[in-house]
Amino acid sequence: MEKTIKVTLKKSKSGATKRQKETLKGLGLTRLNKTAVLKDTVAIKGMINKVSHLISIGE
Fold it and tell me: What residue numbers bound the domain in which 23 lies?
């Protein structure tokens, strides 16, 4: 079974840059407190790293 990562948008994206907003959209995080379960890949980890100050991460 593939490893997954659970990410939740915890802070508002209103003050984020355009690039950060696009990254959040790519992660499937469109609203505050929305949770997405994603595959644990290098690309996803890179996206999470870029917006780590706005999200919380679970396994």
Answer: 4-58
